[in-house]
Design the sequence.
């Protein structure tokens, strides 16, 4: 990411959940689209996984946390994947789940993670050089921060640097 200029970094942060990418459904020639979910959508996926457990009278416990995380992944993928018209794959999450094998789910989850990394830069992994470019661009155009910095980690880091700039 360090070869990016500040504008493209801001654009990538701003675009985040709006960016869709094409991918082939594993083992087929069928094109599907993937996008990054918002925090609200990720929470809904987690709540839906918990609701499924409650509906099955199953507790979420140490012995079945892998099953819960698996269901959470299915919920995330159902929300993140769509057809060319923007419709979810499957009429509902149960229909989507029926399309999955373990290998297909693993491949789709890896594609989601790669898409998220590509289109929603993680401030924890942002290089000092990229961060410095972002900070410099926002100092030149403070209005660009609106809609650009929705990640609390980036906002805190920017606030700290503006309140007490690092010594050189």
Sequence:
């Amino acid at each position: 990411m360090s070869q990016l200029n500040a504008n493209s970094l801001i654009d990538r942060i701003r675009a985040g959940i709006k960016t869709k990418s094409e991918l082939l459904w594993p083992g087929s020639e069928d094109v599907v689209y993937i996008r990054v979910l918002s925090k609200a959508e990720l929470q809904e996926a987690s709540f839906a996984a918990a609701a499924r457990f409650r509906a099955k009278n199953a507790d979420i416990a140490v012995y079945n946390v892998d099953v819960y995380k698996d269901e959470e992944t299915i919920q995330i993928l159902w929300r993140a994947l769509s057809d060319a018209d923007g419709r979810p794959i499957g009429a509902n999450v149960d229909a989507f789940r029926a399309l999955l094998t373990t290998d297909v789910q693993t491949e789709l989850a890896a594609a989601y993670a790669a898409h998220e990394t590509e289109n929603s830069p993680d401030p924890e992994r942002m290089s000092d050089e990229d961060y410095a470019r972002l900070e410099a661009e926002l100092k030149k155009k403070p209005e660009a921060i609106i809609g650009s910095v929705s990640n609390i980690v980036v906002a805190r880091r920017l606030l700290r640097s503006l309140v007490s700039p690092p010594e050189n």
In short: The first strand starts at residue 20 and ends at 24. Strands lie at 20-24, 31-35, 81-82.
